[in-house]
Amino acid sequence: MPISRRSLLGSAAIAAVLPGAAARAQAKPTLKLGVLTDMSGTYSSDTGKGSLSCTQQAVAEFNAAGHGFSVEVVSADHQNKPDIGASIARQWFDRDGVDVIVDVPTSSVALAVNTVVRQENKVFLASGPATPDLTGKQCSPNTLHWTYDTYMLGRSTGEALVKSGGDTWYFITADYVFGHELQDDTTLFVKEGGGKVLGASAYPFPSTTDFSSFLVRAKASGAKVIGLANAGLDTQNCVKQAHEFDVVSGGTRLAALLMVLTDVHALGLATAHGLVLTESFYWDLNDRTRAFTKRVLPRMPRGAYPNMLQAGCYSAVLHYLKAAAAMGAAAAKANGAAAVTMMKKMPVDDDVFGATTIRVDGRHMVPAYLFQVKAPGESKSAWDYYTLVATTPADEAAPPLAGEHCALVKS
Fold first, then answer.
1. What confidence score (pLDDT) does residue 371 get?
2. Is the pLDDT of residue 266 over 50?
3. What is the pLDDT, as a whole number, of residue 27?
4. pLDDT tens digits along 187-221
5. How far, in Å, are 40, 223, 273, 334, 360 from residue 342 at the CA level?
6. Residue 22: predicted pLDDT
7. Letter string b/e over residues 387-399, b meaning 16 or more CB atoms within 10 A of that residue's CB
8. Domain limits of the chain?
9. Distance between CA atoms of 204 and 218, rounded to whole angstroms?
10. Residue 306 CB: number of other CB atoms within 10 A?
11. Percentage of residues in the chain with pLDDT exceeding 90?
């Protein structure tokens, strides 16, 4: 059907009555977050769907308040492989319009993603990885390291065990950057406390499931403490097999250097009781942590309670969105480094960590809590697993601020 001149004039008149309505509808900016995590491997129960759920909770709370822009969340499984993680990051940035990458357990993957994020001038909110290199020699103006690192774990757990008499150690170590950094940082505090390391066994990651030979070797060394420089399913398997092979008899103790609430749940209190471990968040720590947990539980997979890695995603994302609102979503989208700078300037306050700060090198400053796993008879309710033993203040739990390692310290 031909369009008449009168029809065109009528359309123009309508447009004049409603100037820019369509443009305004299309102009509402959207920020897109990508949760890059382990959905199927060694760290999937510690991060994975729980990290996605906590990210979605932060977005839902932020969107409910209304800020003139929308927020979307996508997710992907990096399979604990640096090349896959970097490839997904580039695709997200170049094709899919992602502005922020969240979580990224597995330190080798995180370091690869860190490079891509800086090249693309986006934002990396790292909750899952443990490597202190993210705020050290590979620090970036586009990256914030949010929840913990190997320095925190070594200081809190390692130092405490040495003080309680565990002055000889043998390590079972995941053979990649995270495992070796966790062993090295813990060794530092073992030696500072007057202890010594008798040996170590590195195992192929992530292909090892049978740890019996490593455990028997560690027991034969005569070490009072067997340090597990690993995480996730690897730690769970080590603890189970240590009990099966009677490795923990005769005064030998296990040091689960990175164990979180979901690992304890998977093991059960009958197996895990007595272990000491470090987290920077626990659901039953105070009224605010309990309030956050109550809100997020309906989203969590299989009714699991959040651990520090997952809760850290909520905290980091919520603070990023507050910074984006303060500077304008379009500006945050256009310049990831500027968004991170805004995050560093603004005070952090949420129900996960309370009132905290962000250091110039990108380290989010949070205390470290040393917990002991309760015996079955001590637990009074679901997921009531920890007794608080000690607290390391935030400024002591983080690696020292060193300009020779991070160029941002000098800028």
1. 97
2. yes
3. 63
4. 999 999 999 999 999 999 999 999 999 999 999 99
5. 34, 48, 43, 13, 12
6. 46
7. eeeeebebeebbb
8. 29-148+286-358, 151-279+368-391
9. 17
10. 30
11. 90
> Quick one: pLDDT at residue 24?
47
Going by C-alpha positions, the residue among 257, 245, 248, 252 that lies closest to residue 211 is 245
Question: Is residue 330 within 8 Å of 29, Cβ to Cβ?
Answer: yes
The amino acid at 327? M
Is 35:52 a contact under the CB 8 Å cutoff?
Answer: yes
Distance CA 110, CA 309 (A): 14
Q: How many residues are given for the chain?
A: 411
So what's the pLDDT on residue 65?
86
Q: How confident is the model at residue 175 (pLDDT cuts 50, 70, 90)?
A: very high
Q: Which two tokens stand for residue 22?
A: 């369509």
Beta-carbon contacts of 312 under 8 Å, excluding residues fewer than 6 positions away, are 54, 127, 128, 146, 147, 148, 280, 281, 352
pLDDT of 124 > 90? The answer is yes
Q: Where are the alpha helices (DSSP H) in 277-404?
A: 287-296, 308-327, 329-334, 336-345, 394-397
3-state helix, strand, coil in the chain (%, to 5): 45, 20, 35
- Measured CA to CA, the distance from residue 122 to residue 93 in angstroms comes to 8
Tokens found for residue 76: 């992907």
| pLDDT at residue 411, rounded to an integer | 56
Tokens 């008449």 found at: 4
Measured CA angle at 349 (ends 348, 354), to 5 deg = 120
Q: What is the pLDDT of residue 7?
A: 41
Q: Which two tokens stand for residue 200?
A: 């170590």
Judge whether 112 and 85 are in contact, CB under 8 Å: yes
C-alpha distances out from residue 85 to 34, 82, 104, 174, 216, Å: 12, 5, 8, 19, 35
According to CATH, the topology of domain 29-148+286-358 is Rossmann fold (3.40.50)
Q: Is 151-279+368-391 a domain of CATH 3.40.50.2300?
A: yes
d(CA 41, CA 340): 30
- Cis before 206 (ω within 30): yes
Beta strands in 337-393, from DSSP E residues, in sequence order: 348-350, 354-358, 364-365, 368-373, 386-392
